[in-house]
Amino acid sequence: MGRRGWLALFFGLMVIAGLTLLRAADPYPVQVARETTFDLFQQLRPREAPPDLPIRIIDIDETSLAAQGQWPWPRSTMADISDRLTELGAAAVVFDLLFSEPDRLSPSGRVEGSQDYDATFAVALSAGPTVLSLAQSGRAAVTGLEPKSGLAMTGDDPLAQVPQLGGAAQPLRILAEAARGLGVASLDRDGAGVARRLPMLWRNGEAVLPSLSAEALRVALGVSTLVVIGDSAGAGTVEQLRIGDFAVPTGPSGDIWIYYRHLPEDIYVPVHELLVDGYRDLAPQIAGHIVLVGTSASGLLDIRASALGTAVPGVSIHAQIIEQMLTGSFLDRADWVGGLEMIVFAVAGLLIVLAVIITGPVVGLVVSLLIAGLLLAASWWAFAQPRLLIDPSFALFGALLLYAAMAFFRFAVTDADRRRIRRAFAHYVEPSLLTRIEADARLLKLGGDLRELTVMFSDVRNFSALAERTTPARLVAILNRLFAALGQAIVNEQGTIDKFMGDAIMAFWNAPVDVERHASRACLAALSMREALERLNASSNEPIAIGIGIATGPALVGNMGFERRFDYSCIGDTVNVASRIEGSCRAVGYDILVTETTASAAAELALLPAGAVELKGMTGREPVHILVGDSTMRQSEAFAVLETAHRDLMATLGAGADPARSLDACRRAALAVDTRLGAFYAACLERSDDFRAIGPAPGV
Questions:
Q1: How far is it, in rounded angstroms, from Cα 217 to Cα 223?
Q2: Closest Cα partner for 58 from 367, 295, 412, 413?
């Protein structure tokens, strides 16, 4: 190698060293990438479905809430649940519910001779193999409840790294003392939002509380003591938790990785089936089973994100962990794995550096791809066979970055010349802008001018649902056809299309050239977009709805970015307002909303006031109008009748009076103008705050 070769090798080694130090520091983005990769592995190969295990979930679902009434239910009902599960022979009755406060529905103290519901529930708990839960809470006091299980340990202080529980929301003492088990139900120790790892043990001062799943298995087995196996090297870490004959391998802090599978529907038993007279028919599903009582109702706020990328009830995650313990299906990420990952990356990085230096960027790219594929394959094999979690994400990212750095270095040092740089510059700008730059070099400067613009945002409604039921190729075809029609409507009214953003369009008027009556032209473009969409929907099996927001006011327009890459665009409060009011179309119940400034500038069009809406991230309220039609409609007799009724409705809503009569008049008048108005007037009753006197709204 010549001087440049040694210089390139030194540069590559510096990049490898920097990336290795980054991996050793393990910042949050690296952790997120690693755990997201492990999530992807589980999604590709979830835990195998075991034979029918003795686990059931008594589900407080939406149907049960409709049958039994609003939550919380009286503790007498919870007592019935406990009694009936005990009667049906449940091995353990585990409540993934908090009973932190006295029952407000209890008649005790209000009705002479009545029975306290909490006492009734306590009696039911004491009669069966029941487990109650508590939850970690930074705003609660430290729990004074004692563990129900004994604890035996081997090794030197194996609990040194077990997490502290701290404050906890705990059950009433009368209930906790009646139950046979007490476990911690918290699932999100790190606050990451996805339940991936769960501590099996929590320290509470000198005491140790098990997780809810571990306590459920202990009670079901009739075991009195948990055994904690510490490491033999005296590092003060946990290696294993034993519950009866079941061994649970753990990480150093006593946690396990949750290995998910898709739970079958028959594991769930709606609780209302347990509360009817024929509940004894459930005996085959309950007898000898660990039964968890929890909720899947979204309104009860126990829906969690799983590694499978789906939202699941929190109680189902506890069921997954119990399944893992019963079947011995565990994921492992030993302490030495992180060091192995760094060594493998350093060796792979050195191979990539040598390949680029010796053979050039093209062969170096092939070598880099082969190494990346080998690392990915090895990580996948480790997950699929010995269930060992080895992270390929940092190695893949590092290899890509290292190759890019080496290729750039080689290009910059040995291959670059001015003509190639000038030709490459053409790939950094849009062709139309490049033509303008070639004609006027002054346009290369960054910055822009403050002008009055009219800005439009449009967005496809329920795009996620459309994407789910449509193949990618079909979805692209639909969007291209939609954007062609909508974009043509904007161009016909002299608008500038700023960008297409997924399923959305941003456009503006009065730049780069002056446009007379730009507010009116933007509104006419919106009406044309509505008509174009109706034509598309008439010939399509996939009807699409859009929302449009338009705002007029000052904005900075010009070249945005940096010297080597910029776009011609606009920024400012007007742009933000246009985007936010487009997002308000759904709440308002109409497809085209404009600001008051736009409505004033386009007064010849058929516009109706729609109150003052709150815009996300902005202070105050923004008065908005709905755009019903063009100037011809504005001058029609039907619109005049509607406008009169609409003004009366606005006054009625603003005064807080009963709008029933005014609404009825508006609905009748709207039938002759635009049937879309029905949804708008239906939404008015839910938007009373938008019509009350609130003072002046902020300007655009």
A1: 9
A2: 295
Cβ burial, residue 455 (10 Å; 0-12/13-18/19+): buried
CB 424 within 8 A of CB 412: no
Q: How far is CA 8 from CA 2, 363, 399, 404, in A?
A: 10, 16, 16, 13
Helix (H, G, I), strand (E, B) or coil at 150: strand
Q: Please name which of 236, 239, 179 lies closest in space to residue 212, comparing C-alpha atoms.
A: 179
In whole angstroms, give the CA distance from residue 620 to residue 614.
7
Reading the block at residue 537, the tokens are: 């929907």
CA distance 443 to 604: 37
* E-state strands within 545-635: 546-562, 565-571, 592-595, 606-614, 621-629
Radius of gyration of the chain (CA): 33
Backbone angles phi, psi at 665, to 5 degrees: -65, -40
99/176 Cα distance (integer angstroms) = 9
CB 541 within 8 A of CB 477: no
For the four alpha carbons of 347, 349, 351 and 354, in that order, the dihedral sign comes to negative
Confidence at residue 140, expressed as pLDDT on a 0 to 100 scale: 84
626 vs 607: CA distance, rounded Å? 6
State the Cα–Cα distance between residues 462 and 483, nearest whole angstrom: 16
Output phi, psi for 180, to 5 deg: -85, -20
pLDDT tops 90 at residue 452: yes
Distance CA 22, CA 26 (A): 6
Q: Which residue has the tokens 């030993």?
A: 334
Round to whole Å and give the CA distance between 455 and 570: 9
- Strands in 246-249's sheet, in edge-to-edge order, are 150-154, 225-230, 238-243, 246-249
Rounded Cα distance between 200 and 211, Å, is 5
Lowest-confidence region among 51-55, 398-402, 470-474, 512-516: 512-516
φ, ψ at 668 (rounded to 5°): -65, -45
Which amino acid appears at position 666 of this protein? C
Residues paired with 551 in a beta bridge: 455
Q: What is the mean pLDDT of residues 587-592?
A: 93
Please provide the DSSP assignment of 185-227 as one string. ----TT--SB--EEESEEEETTEEEEBHHHHHHHHHHT--EEE
Cα–Cα distances (Å) from 652 to 430, 493, 572, 646, in that order, read 52, 37, 35, 10
**Token pair for residue 423?**
């030709």
55 in Cβ contact with 266 (< 8 Å): no
Could you tell me how far CA 122 lies from the centroid of its own chain?
A: 39
307 vs 470: CA distance, rounded Å: 25
Task: Report d(CA 99, CA 131) in Å as an integer.
Answer: 12
CB 161 within 8 A of CB 252: yes
Q: At 32, phi and psi to the nearest 5? A: -60, -45
Amino acid 139 reads: R
Write out the two tokens for 648.
Answer: 């009366």
Query: Mean pLDDT, to the nearest integer, of 461-482?
Result: 85
- Rounded to the nearest 5°, which phi and psi values hold at 543? -60, 140
Euclidean distance between CA atoms 498 and 504, whole angstroms: 11
pLDDT tens figures, 511-559: 877 889 999 999 999 999 999 999 998 888 878 899 999 999 999 988 7
**Model-wide pTM > 0.70:** no
> pLDDT tier at 188 (50, 70, 90 boundaries)?
low
